[in-house]
# Entry
Amino acid sequence: MAKKTSTKKVGKKKTAKKKSAKMSDDICFVLAPFQEPFDTYYDVIIEPAVIKAGLKPKRGNSLFLPTPIMGDIWCMIQDAKVVLAELSGKNPNVFYELGLGHAIGKPVVLISESMEDVPFDLQALRVILYDKDDPRWGDRLRNRIVVALQATLCEPVKAVPPIFRKVLKSQAPKESEISLRLAIVESKIDSLRNREIRKRKYAGQYYTRQPALSNYWQNKLTEANSDQKIINWVHLALEEGFSVRSIEDTLRRSLKSEELVVRIMEKAMRDYPEIA
# Structure
């Protein structure tokens, strides 16, 4: 039977009350596709729920570091107190990152619109389901995530499937100490080389195969409805190798306000002091 679609709006984002739980440095790493409607679900439902549970929400597209994205995500999964995975849409990246979390025995909370999106191997686990035909589905999902996260913090072992609770040693091929040190040195050299290339790109010189931003990037900018989302868009464009000049040109065409463009770029470039 075909899967129902719904255009009903999610509930309004609730403002934090004064008596809400104080957010700690413990991280909840959220695994979800980087596209709509999941970006909105994260902003309106998941992020407020994580904060209310007393955790600091993090997502893969919030990591703007001069290192390979897979390494950053792997480190974040290891550092997280809890991992929350949105399984709707059967996104392969979400499943891969969820597998990494399970492999190291990380407590995990699963959510999905339908059990049809949950792989057979995971269907025996507890999954928070939501029904978008329910007018208050957003509020209900937010509350259920809060309860699930708080329960996981109280009894984290129960959120780890028994088969993953055994501590295992790495099965990576053994390297000699010299080979390991050489690999570290090569990695640092590559990082410095890539940083220098990025500096040249940011300085306005076109080193990419796409000097101008494609329609995809322009459409993503059109969807950004706040200064912070536009700043996130700038960060992603920089990480893809687009020059500052091409990004500014795209912003000018879209925002039609030189003052706004200057303000956005000043805030965005604070995270890139080496090329500011």
User: Anything to note?
Assistant: Confidence is low (pLDDT under 50) at residues 1-8, 12-24, 204-210. The chain has two domains: 27-164, 177-269. Residues 177-269 form one domain.
